[in-house]
Amino acid sequence: MGGEGGVPHTGAMQVRLLGPVEVVSGGLVTAVPGLRRRALLAVLGLHPGRAVSSDQLIDAVWDDRPPATATNTLQRNISYLRELLGSKDAIVAKPAGYLLDIGGEATDVEQAERLISQGRQASSPHEAVRHLRAALALWRGRALADVAELRWLGEQARRLSHTEFEAIRALIDCRLALGEHALLVPELQQLVTARPFDEDLHRQLMLALYRAGQQAESLAHYQRLKRTLADELGIDPGQALRDLEAAILRQDSALDAPGSPVTVAPVPAVRAPAQLPLATAAFAARAKEIARLDAVMAEHSENVCLAVVSGTAGVGKTTLAVHWAHRARQSFPDGQLYADLRGFDRGGSVADPAAVLRAFLDAFGVPVEKIPADIDAQAALYRSVLAGKRVLVVLDNARDAEQVRPLLPGTPGCAVLVTSRYQLTALVTVEGAHPVMLELLTDDEAREVLVRRIGKDRVAGQEAAVQEIITRCARLPLALALAAASCVTRPDLPVGGVAEELRQSLGALEALQSVDSGTDIRSVFSWSYHALSPDAARVFRLLGAHPGPEFSAEAAASLTGMAPADLRAKLAELARANLLTQPKPGRYSLHDLLWTYAADLGRAEEGFPRLLDHYLHTALSAALLLNSHREPLAVPAPMPGIAPERLSTREQAASWFTAERAVLLGMVKRAAQQGFDDYVWRLAWAAQDHLDRCGHWGDQVLNQQAAIQSTKQLGDRAAQAHAHCSLSTAYARMARYAQAQSHLGHALDLYASLGDCGGQAKAEYQMGWLSNRQGEHAQAVGHARQALRLYRLAGQPMMAARTLNSLGWGYALSGDFARARPRCELALAQMRELGDLTFQAGTSDSLGYIYHHLGDFDLAIAYYQRALELFRELDDRYYEADTLKHLGDTHHAAGDDSAAGAAWAQALELLDLLGHPDAAQVRAKLTSSAAPSP
């Protein structure tokens, strides 16, 4: 790695100060025990190449208050550090004092300062970015984290924090010069939130927004900053910002994004994930717990750091975790992952660790086909992806240790923060997790929460009322937030009036069972609920019918039967009252206690069937957009007032399924529990293509298992057979072939009992596909023959044509190209007559493969070209790339390396754009073809 690396040479010794003080030698990290020893080593390390006098060392190490034995203790500590460093010569006694002398760059501070200097002097932005990123990677958290309590070292820690931030700022300027403005916008928005008065950061954000095509937002940001500076500091923006605003207004060409110089490295297909939810703006108190988390993370950089924040419902575990995670995110440059494990979900839909692993692997761009089915293998892949990275993982609302363990990274540098209502002692005992128990707030902390949320002016002179609110809310943060929200949304009501209303509602309802018996939280909910307008209260009650974890405004409109404009006003009222949150634009959620309370209030109202109708009709329309060849299901018209979401494109349908996946899983589960069997199997039918395409096979298994039970209850053998086929597909994707085969056998028997030739053909077709997946091509051919006979008997020409191609493909995989060719050619002719473009494209590709292996390269190229035209017409970029790869192979075999290189280059461009792993194979082909002949 030489001088460019972010870590010392293997085998070299170095003192690390950019985090806790430690020594690394030969790749092994050694902690330095004792505050005075760590401080002594840090002071020596911060004077590179210079001797430090004994008096200076004593003053710094003992904060100008040395004991009488300081000189002797200093000498003993010097001897100890020499032994720790492995040599008497590591700390040299000089007439002027002591000198740290371990050769090379003795500390990571020296290394970072060199890299930053090289970055500032670099001849190109690309080179500067490389140096600056290497420098910033050396920070392992707050510099001098475990000695910063000492005055002189605390000053040095602040200096090094300033150095880190200046490097971040310089890196941003270089990335702007490289045209990374769009990538920088969210990062800069987070930075200006943390440093609201740093005008240079605001300059960078305005420029990034402007270059990203958001001129109006750039100017609006300037106006917001101008108001903030005037209100908070009584000043105007500096000249540089004023000049930038003027340049944006006149659209000065000097602000335009740079071109793409040849020295610029390609932007990675997948950025570091940044999944943290929005932090609470008015976060207050919890200073002790924040300090505890800071200390835990700072002290354990040599291994995976794991902390568990536990406490009762509504005590603020998630708020604390998200707040701390935002504070610490700069220490985890490779990403921040977040998952709500829903361990205490009222509907029992606890998050499956396998589904969370899938989502985390997706966040790092791991393609579906590279993700194994077995959870242990998924966890191993996840640990491999995170190896060598600094990633923060926040696991919210965990039920038990078993839910958490598969999600733990395996190498140093990563940190995991877990929240749970349980203490998860198994993680503490086995994995060495650090427990952080979150108690109810103290009176002072509760008062700080109210002051921060309501404002000092509102609470001035209202001490008795504030104390009563604190008492009535039992010092529970969730209840205090509700009380504060009522004050904020009703500015004319004195704080004493809020306390009086809360007093009158006390005892109106029994305490929730999920909260300590001494905390009458439900009375607080009741008070907030009764303060709503009648329409908003009705919306809140009806929302209790939703399974969560989130819902859209459209779903709420169907649930309530309200016009969207009227509903939005009521949702806004609920949000102002803190009875509703908006975790992302257009999506809403309730705290689980509030959802329980709303469900209890709304027991008499039949909201769930309306939700079922909304999701079923929307899901069916989305399913047909994803796959236009599916035969629509016959379902009754929607209930009055139900407004299914309007989706018009395949992309919109896919986005809707992605957003609603967890909701649909919850709807299927609850519908099965409550006996809505007609909805169960239809919802499972609608979701199956999306779940299969995106690799959510665990969800598919749960859905289709529920569908099989519901269709048995209904006595609908045709729907039951279809569910068996769909379940078989999911099991096959997970390489559980015996179960896949068993369910296909059940489906075949059911279709045979109905005399359904088309259904039997479908089962046989899938058996052929299953056989090919297992390399049993002779069996696949037999199943395809049987499926073809049955499809023809059933009068389904399109499926017969598709099966004919499947038969030809089975012969091709067996190496019998003489039999494969006529069957695929006939299939293609029939598909042209039927207008089946999708399988025309696939069959043309099959014929290209067949003719290539028959040695007719010209005809193979012609078929590949036709497949390309069709895949482009269908906007299927992966199969376009796949066909280009095959086309390149044929050109290469024909001796036309120039055409082969052109096809492979086009394929590589598409695969890189998709972030697909096949890109590596194509890149290797290009490299090999470009190599000179021996």
Biggest sheet layout = 5 strands, parallel
Count of DSSP E strands? 13
The CATH architecture name of the domain at 2-154 reads: Orthogonal Bundle
Q: Which percent bin holds the helix content? A: 55-70%
- Portion of residues in beta strands equals 5-15%
- Rg is 32 Å
Number of helices: 41
- CATH H level, superfamily name of the domain at 2-154: Winged helix-like DNA-binding domain superfamily/Winged helix DNA-binding domain
Read across the widest sheet, the strand sequence of neighbours is 7-8-9-6-10
Q: Give the CA-CA distance, first to last residue.
A: 31 Å
CATH level-1 class of the domain at 2-154? Mainly Alpha
Class by alpha and beta content: mainly alpha
DNA-binding region: 5-102
Pfam families: BTAD, NB-ARC, TPR_12, Trans_reg_C
Organism: Rhizocola hellebori
Family: Belongs to the AfsR/DnrI/RedD regulatory family.
Q: How would you briefly describe this protein structure?
A:
This protein is mainly alpha-helical and 934 residues long. It is built from 41 helices and 13 strands.
Structure description:
The protein is mainly alpha-helical. Among the domains are: 2-154, Winged helix-like DNA-binding domain superfamily/Winged helix DNA-binding domain (Arc Repressor Mutant, subunit A, Orthogonal Bundle), CATH 1.10.10.10; 180-255, Tetratricopeptide repeat domain (Serine Threonine Protein Phosphatase 5, Tetratricopeptide repeat); 287-437, Rossmann fold (3-Layer(aba) Sandwich); 443-519; 534-605, Arc Repressor Mutant, subunit A (Orthogonal Bundle); 836-934, Alpha Horseshoe (Serine Threonine Protein Phosphatase 5, Tetratricopeptide repeat), CATH 1.25.40.10. Helix content is 61%, strand content 6%. The protein is built from 41 helices and 13 strands. The strands form 4 sheets. It has a 5-stranded parallel β-sheet with strand order 7-8-9-6-10, with helices on both faces. The protein has a 3-stranded antiparallel β-sheet with strand order 1-2-3, covered by helices on one side. A hairpin with a 2-residue loop joins strand 4 (91-94) and strand 5 (97-100). Helix 32 runs antiparallel to helix 33 (757-773), helix 33 packs parallel to helix 35 (797-813) and helix 40 (897-914) runs antiparallel to helix 41. The protein is globular. The two termini are 31 Å apart. Residues 1-11, 260-270 and 506-520 have low confidence and may be disordered.
